Amino acid sequence: MGETNPNELLFLPKALSKTFRIISFEISNENLILPLHAYNRARRQYNSTILLEYLAITRPRGYAKYLGIVDADLYAGELNFVFGEATLNGDSAIISLYRLRPEFYGSSANEELFRARVLKEAVHELGHTFGLTHCRNPECVMHFSNSIIDTDLKNAQPCSACQAKLFRLL
Question: CATH number of the domain at 6-169, out of 3.60.15.10, 3.40.390.10, 3.40.50.300, 3.90.1150.10?
C-alpha cells in the first residue's frame, strides 16, 4: 500500500512460509493508494484501523489472507503508534515499515535487523488473522510490542503453545 520498495520485501514470502508451513506467500506488484481520509494531519500519522477497513474492500481477490505493507507511521485509537493491525480471524492485516527501520531511532541502517523486525511484525499480524491472540510470553512473536525493544526481544516464531494453537487453526 502506498510507496514501498518491493526489493526490501523479497525475502518475506520464503521467511513467512517457515512459520505458516502449509501456506504459500507471494508479493503482489499492485500498489494500493493510501486513502487521504485515513491521514490525521495533527498527528502526522495514518489511522491503521481505517487503512485496514480500506484494505478489506480494495485488496486484490484470490488470496486467503492479505498483508498490506506501508512505509508510513501508523496509530490506532489512543495509542501513540502501532507497528501493525489485523482483523482477528479475518483475511486482512497491515504492517508499517516506518518504525521498524533502525534509522528511525537514530541508529545506522542495518538490513538484517530491519528484515528481522519486518518478519516478526508480519508473522504477528498474520497470526491474528488465523485467530492467535496476544501471548504473555515476551519471547513469543505473538507478544504485544509496546516498543521496538519488545519487538527485538521476540523470536520470529510463535512459542510452543501458540504454535500448537496455530496448527490446530490451520
Answer: 3.40.390.10
